[in-house]
Structure formats: C-alpha cells, structure tokens
C-alpha cells in the first residue's frame, strides 16, 4: 500500500510544480493551453499506441470487461438523468460532466495501483480500451461537432462520421490495437519513439492542471451541488456498482478486487485536457479531478480492505 501512496505523492508533486510556476508567473493561461494541446495531439496518442500494441488481449476481452462497462454505463446514466431533468445542462456540458462521473485515471493512477495492489498491470488494459475505444471517440466527436457549430463551421454527414478517424487519440488506440491483433511487428525505432513522446503526456497534463489550480477559482467554489454529486458518483457509486455486478456474475476474488479498485480510481486528467480543448466546463472537470484525486487515496484503500475481507 505504501507504493500506492508513493504513486499518489509523485502525481501531487508534479501538480505542485505546475501550481508554483503559475504562482511565479513563469507560465500563464496560454502556457496551460499549450501544455494540454501537446498532451492531446502528441503525448496521449503516442502512449496509447505504445500501451495497446503490447497489451494482454486475453485480459482485455475477458468477463471482467462486462462488469467494468456496466459500472461505467450505470454511473453515466445516473449523471445524464440528473443533468437533463434536474440541472438542464447543454449537450457539450453533459459530455464533460459525464466523463467526470465515470472516466477513470487508468494510466498514471491505475498503473501504480494495479502494480502494487493487484500485482498485475494488465488489469488496466480492459478499462483503458473501453474508455479510449468507445467513450472517448463518441464524446470527442460530439464536442468537436459542437465546437464547429459554435465557431460557424459547416459540416457534412461524412465530416461527422469521420470525426473519430481524425482524432489523434483514437488513431493511437486503433493503431496499437490493430498491431496487437494482427501480430504486426513494430520497428524498434517506432516503438522507442512512441515511448519517448508518450512520456510527455502525463507531466504535461499534470503541469497544466497545477497551473489552472493557481490561476483559476478555488476548487468547489463554482457549481457546488453538481460538483459534489459527480464526486459521489465517481468515488462511491461507480465502485459499489462494480462490486454488485461482480457478485452477481460470481467473479473470483482476485477479479472482483481488480474491477472494484479500477472503478474506484479518480477522474482522469484526460478529462481536463478534453474540456480545455473543447473550451467546455473546464472548471467542473478541474474541480472533480482535484477532489477525487484526494478522496480516492482513502476510497481505494477502503475498497481493498472491504473486498479482501
């Protein structure tokens, strides 16, 4: 468990560096936008390609995916009902709000947790694939179309259909997965290059996040009812649904622990990148990521203890 706390500590240190350089005015809002764009267009596609081209396909397409998908779908459905009938949010806001309620930090939080709690990093693969192959393309296509309409750009049916194919992260996912499925050997130069470029993603996202904490309003000061509700959905409801589904499907103890812990991870920094890129609900994304990243230290630890009883 100390290694999990060590992973959390590294993340918070990098966020702290971002906060500090924002405080010193070494970097401002424009630097934050540049960092998130670098992560979005360069780092994340590279790291996704590199991860998925060598992922364990047996783990990706196993029964635990049903539980993870069910927990995501149920949590997302609850949020969408609240956003539609209680808060009356716009469609782009629902996309970002929906992401904050169920899109887990499978990379820089999930990997250390999987390594040091579950003792197997391949548990991250099915969650990662589900998010980047399904949630991400659909949501980003809607956000892209909404932004184009807001900026007065004309679109066609083909333009809308081809949006996922023109998204850099979707291309990284499909490229890595196709290489894995076909067994296509990837040149060493390409692998090492994608690994090196992928190393940009997490630091860039966390630094941009830290800058936004210093230059933006304090977390939780804006739209508190929705923010607190989304935090509850992410930190409590989603892992409890995963536990219930795992019990219903009679998964073994190891698999049950894995799906519950993965569901209990905090909201991914990717959501902040998506919100900044689309210029939509940035404060909500930032606040939920910040608070769930703190709460999850307690909740993930509690999940491990409960499921291990």
Q: Mind explaining what this structure looks like?
A:
The protein is mostly helical and 309 residues long. 77% of the residues lie in helices and 0% in strands. Helix 12 runs antiparallel to helix 13 (253-263), helix 12 (224-248) packs parallel to helix 15 (282-307) and helix 13 (253-263) runs antiparallel to helix 15.
Question: What is the β-strand count?
Answer: 0
Query: What name is given to the CATH topology?
Result: Na+/H+ antiporter like fold
Compute the number of helices.
15
Classify the oligomer: single chain
Order of helices and strands: HHHHHHHHHHHHHHH
Going by CATH, the architecture would be Up-down Bundle
**Termini separation (Å)?**
16 Å
Largest sheet: none
Short characterization:
By secondary structure, this protein is mainly α.
Blueprint (SSEs and pairs):
Layout: H1 2-23, H2 29-52, H3 57-60, H4 64-85, H5 91-102, H6 110-118, H7 124-150, H8 157-161, H9 168-182, H10 188-198, H11 201-215, H12 224-248, H13 253-263, H14 269-278, H15 282-307
């Amino acid at each position: 468990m100390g290694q999990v706390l060590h992973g959390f500590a590294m993340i918070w240190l990098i966020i702290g560096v971002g906060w500090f350089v924002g405080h010193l005015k070494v970097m401002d809002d424009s630097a934050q936008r540049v960092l998130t764009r670098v992560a979005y267009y360069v780092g994340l596609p590279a790291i996704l390609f590199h991860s998925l081209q060598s992922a364990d396909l047996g783990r990706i397409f196993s029964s635990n995916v049903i539980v993870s998908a069910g927990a995501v779908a149920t949590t997302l459905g609850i949020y969408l009902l609240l956003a539609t009938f209680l808060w009356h949010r716009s469609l782009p806001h629902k996309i970002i709000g929906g992401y904050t309620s169920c899109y887990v930090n499978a990379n820089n939080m999930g990997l250390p947790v999987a390594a040091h709690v579950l003792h197997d990093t391949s548990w991250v693969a099915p969650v990662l694939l589900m998010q980047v192959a399904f949630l991400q393309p659909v949501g980003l296509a809607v956000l892209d179309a909404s932004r184009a309409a807001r900026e007065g750009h004309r679109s066609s049916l083909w333009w809308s259909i081809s949006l996922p194919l023109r998204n850099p992260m979707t291309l990284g996912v499909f490229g890595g997965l196709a290489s894995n499925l076909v067994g296509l050997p990837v040149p060493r130069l390409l692998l090492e290059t994608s690994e090196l470029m992928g190393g940009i993603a997490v630091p860039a996202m966390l630094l941009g996040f830290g800058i936004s904490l210093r230059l933006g309003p304090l977390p939780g000061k804006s739209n508190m009812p929705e923010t607190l509700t989304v935090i509850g959905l992410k930190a409590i409801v989603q892992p409890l649904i995963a536990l219930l589904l795992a019990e219903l499907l009679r998964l073994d103890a190891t698999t049950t622990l894995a799906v519950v812990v993965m569901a209990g991870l905090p909201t991914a920094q990717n959501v902040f990148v998506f919100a900044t890129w689309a210029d939509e609900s940035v404060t909500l994304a930032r606040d939920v990521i910040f608070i769930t990243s703190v709460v999850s230290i307690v909740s993930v630890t509690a999940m491990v203890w409960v499921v291990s009883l």
